[in-house]
Amino acid sequence: MKLLISLAMIASLGGCKPRSFNSSEPSGVSSSTKQTTFADFCAASENNTTLWNAQQVQQEITKLIGLPGYKSSGLSAYAEAYRAMTFERDKSRCAESGAIVPKSEISRRLNDALADLMTKGFVLSQSACLTSLASSKTKIPDIGAQLCALSKQALAERWTALELAMGSTALYLSSLMGISLSALPHVDALWENTPHRNLEQRIEAMQEFKPTYDAFNLFLSKNLHTVARVLLKEKRINCKLFEAAARAAEITRAPEHIFKEIRDVTFELGLELSRSWPKGLHPLTAGEPTWNVERQFGSFAKEPNALVKLREHGARSVGILKHPLLKVFDGKDAATFVTFEGLTCEMQK
Predict the structure, then answer these.
(1) Would the pTM count as exceeding 0.70?
(2) Is residue 346 one of the residues assigned to a domain?
(3) Helix, strand, or coil (residue 107)
């Protein structure tokens, strides 16, 4: 029961103009054709290549989970919860109104792009990471390299599935997100028909997006039960009333504060890193109008200081989220808290 809520610290980002969203579980493989302008996530068709639409997001994560050896390796616990969280995220981001629906066009574009970069970065780097377990020659996309290193450490040290998932969550919300944020001012397609021409103007304009970004702290903290439900279904945990316990945790403000603590630093370091890449040289864009998350960073005579700090922030975030219950429950044992709230949570034998 030590791992009561926190695996829900998952999935970040989304947000879009009001759009209809099919509430049934998406399915089907999407085909792609060349497209040069930046698409609206909530209205994106199946043949656009700029970003994955809702159906593609679910399909690609499902394909990742289904890769041979992924579940048995223990690496899939986070992906299973991530799939459920992105589904809830995309319903909310395409609703007619709500806290995570952006209030401006540029916020919508940035939100869509950030979510897309992060989802693609996670899926592609995890796929490569699984392959690298069998072949040391496999290159991991830089966007998820730290996450892969954590996965290998967790397997070597026999972390529980929940510890691995929580550590993965921490890096998703820090280093992977920060690298993605740093790319946005370099993505020319995002800034079409805006007055923001140079890099510094675009970085400054990203402050307009910050309220939407911040809204996800509460969204994540209010969806702990979503993850609990998945973990029970996938038999990653064996606590009969785990979902009820997660709902109890949602009435506290501690999870929201934990998310804020990590994601505020991520935002600042992401913008700092953005300034480190001259226009046209960001490794995820390399002068192209959109992005390619499979690109590797070039060789550095000296790594940008912001990139070093972002990786250090990732390592600290793992320390915060790997065992967050003491923080969430103000030092009380999780089982004691649940009993105090009138719930019981017996562990299955």
Answers:
(1) yes
(2) no
(3) helix
